[in-house]
């Protein structure tokens, strides 16, 4: 889905020029997902895509990010902390298990390429949602299974999905995944971003 169209003569404005113009106008410098549509009348149309965010906690965020990052339709990912009481926490703060934050991955995606329901399927398939505050050897509330929703539609989809998983018999124990409104997202330190990719790994070794 598209929310804006900007028509310009073909090749008269580059992306860099467009971004610089927006910056001088005081707009955010964040890159807006787009694509050029070239037309036969010697004009091009800049199509700005409507994107959505999804936030998941499923244990150590290194492997979770790598899983979502490689999905078609996912435009960007970032690991961080959410759901706690301390503002701008550090990794060391969160590791004390006293701030209430969960390690999470914030996913920006194009809903025309991948649906939120598909992201939920990936979420359920890549961790154990029946272990309270634990994933494998990692123990603590920061490793809890949680879905932070960004809209009423995401909330409904997450609750329906959780109910289906519980009823499916896929897991022997009840699902303990929390579903809550998306709180402030605190981006983790840079060395945590794309941690496995930087090391040529695809998953965390246990």
Structure write-up:
With 206 residues, the protein is an alpha+beta fold. The chain folds into 2 domains: 2-49; 52-198, Peptide methionine sulphoxide reductase MsrA (Peptide Methionine Sulfoxide Reductase, Chain A, 2-Layer Sandwich). Helices cover 27% and strands 29% of the residues. It contains 6 helices and 11 strands. The chain has helices at 15-24, 61-69, 91-95, 116-125, 152-168, 195-198, and strands spanning 2-9, 34-38, 43-49, 52-58, 74-82, 102-109, 134-135, 138-139, 145-149, 178-181, 185-187. Strands 10-9-4-6-5-11 form a 6-stranded mixed sheet, with helices on one face. The chain has a 3-stranded antiparallel sheet with strand order 1-3-2, with no helix packed on it. A two-stranded antiparallel sheet has the order 7-8. β2 (34-38) and β3 form a beta hairpin.
Gist of the model:
With 206 residues, the protein is an alpha+beta fold. It is 27% helix and 29% strand.
Keywords:
single chain; 206 residues; alpha+beta; Peptide Methionine Sulfoxide Reductase, Chain A; 2 domains; six-stranded mixed β-sheet; three-stranded antiparallel β-sheet; 27% helix; globular
Low-confidence stretches: 1-32
| Helix/strand class | alpha+beta
Helix-residue proportion? 25-40%
What global shape is seen?
globular
Q: Kindly provide the radius of gyration, computed on alpha-carbon positions and rounded to a whole number of angstroms.
A: 20 Å
CATH class of the largest domain, please?
Answer: Alpha Beta
Question: How big a fraction of the residues is strand?
Answer: 25-35%
Distance between the termini: 41 Å
Mean pLDDT score: 83
């Amino acid at each position: 889905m598209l929310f804006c169209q900007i028509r310009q003569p073909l090749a008269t404005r580059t992306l860099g020029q467009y971004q610089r113009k927006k910056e001088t106008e005081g707009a955010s410098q964040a890159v807006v997902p787009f694509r050029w549509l070239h037309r036969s009348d010697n004009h091009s149309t800049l199509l700005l895509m409507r994107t959505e965010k999804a936030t998941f906690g499923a244990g150590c965020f290194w492997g979770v990010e790598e899983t979502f990052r490689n999905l078609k339709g996912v435009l960007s990912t970032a690991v961080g902390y959410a759901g706690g009481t301390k503002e701008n926490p550090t990794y060391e703060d969160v590791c004390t298990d006293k701030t209430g934050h969960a390690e999470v991955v914030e996913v920006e995606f194009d809903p025309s390429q991948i649906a939120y329901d598909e992201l939920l399927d990936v979420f359920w398939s890549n961790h154990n949602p029946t272990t309270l505050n634990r994933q494998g050897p990692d123990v603590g509330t920061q490793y809890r299974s949680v879905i932070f929703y960004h809209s009423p539609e995401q909330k409904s989809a997450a609750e329906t999905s959780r109910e289906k998983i519980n009823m499916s018999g896929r897991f022997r124990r009840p699902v303990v995944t929390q579903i809550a409104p998306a709180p402030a997202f605190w981006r983790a330190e840079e060395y945590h971003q794309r941690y496995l990719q930087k090391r040529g790994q695809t998953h965390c070794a246990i």
